[in-house]
Amino acid sequence: MTVVYILIAILLFGVLITVHEAGHFTAAKLCGVKVNEFAVGMGPAIWKKKRGETQYSLRCIPIGGFCAMAGEDEQSDDPRAFTNQPAWKRLIILVAGSAMNFLLGMLIIAILYAPAKAFISPVIAQFTEGCPYEGPLQVGDRFRSVDGHRIYQYYDFSDYMDKNGTVHDIVVIRDGHRVRLNDFRMEKILYVGETQKRYGFSFGYEEATFGVKLRNVWNTSMEFVRWVWAGLSELVSGHVSMNDISGPVGIVDLIAETGEQAESTSDAFFDIFYLGAFIAINLAVMNMLPIPALDGGRVFLLIVTFIIEKITRKKLDPKYEGYIHAAGMVLLLAFMAFVMFNDVLKLFRK
């Protein structure tokens, strides 16, 4: 089955790339921008076909893709060129790729959650006898935040409580209103007849109505976004090294390993596509970072350029922005090569 899981992983990457570039492509077409080529993959073309003004191509390296618009990084006399469009149109086009990845991630989660009958929710269902927190907390309270961290899933509660000592700022939803418990001392204690310390209350289940499913789809998506930011924070702070980063090769291996470790085929597919949803949302967030060559870098420079042009009342030559993105692309490709090399080394060391 390992080969099957690897093929699924490669296919998943292809879908993510296609959806991302299709977002740019669709937005560009709707905004009246001329698209010269829509490509899936990088490197030499193994298939191409021109339809109308756009060439569609499939390239041999399945780790990227692009939507090449007229005048994207250079001055053009074509009124339909990307650089000749109003700033709001260019912004929509640049954001569309990540937006489509995010929506795809949500769609995958929605499909995975569709058969669910109930969800565990961060709502207090009952207290253990003798729990000292009953009173300030009540049955039916839904935890909204702990120490400023939003509680999206029931397990977030323990995660943030365990990280931040014994005194917490807690917000719960009670009868539709927010109740704040500031400087609230709470720690795990040992109850009579038990061997493990705990807080002394349990969470309950919510029937998986359509509205509850939608809420859990959104909450899971927001949880994924938080994981991405947490990973970036650990990388910047030095808690995670560059060698811990995985690229396409490492992610394909992780997906295959995830499938192999599942207890059943159905669990394998659920875990793989759950991971796929995370990767989709990860790409959406990472691609909007203000780094040259990424869409976020383009958005950042678009805003800077817009402000400069409004102040100076002169249109800047887009070739200078093109130089910045070209330099960023060289660095990005070098980084991708480094990550891929590490991924291959990890495979040989297994």
Structure characterization notes:
The protein has 350 residues and is of the alpha+beta class. The protein folds into two domains: 187 residues, no CATH class; 90 residues, PDZ domain (Pdz3 Domain), CATH 2.30.42. It is built from eight helices and eight strands. The strands form three sheets. Strands 5-4-6-7 form a four-stranded antiparallel sheet, covered by helices on one side. A hairpin with a 2-residue loop joins strand 1 and strand 2. The longest helix is centred in the C-terminal third of the chain and has 32 residues. The protein is globular, with a radius of gyration of 24 Å.
Secondary-structure topology with pairs:
Layout: H1 2-30, E1 35-51, E2 54-69, H2 87-113, E3 118-127, E4 142-146, E5 149-150, H3 154-163, E6 167-174, E7 177-185, E8 201-207, H4 210-237, H5 248-261, H6 265-286, H7 295-312, H8 318-349
Antiparallel strand pairs: 1-2, 3-8, 4-5, 4-6, 6-7
Helix pairs in contact: 1-2, 1-5, 2-4, 2-6, 2-7, 4-6, 5-6, 5-8
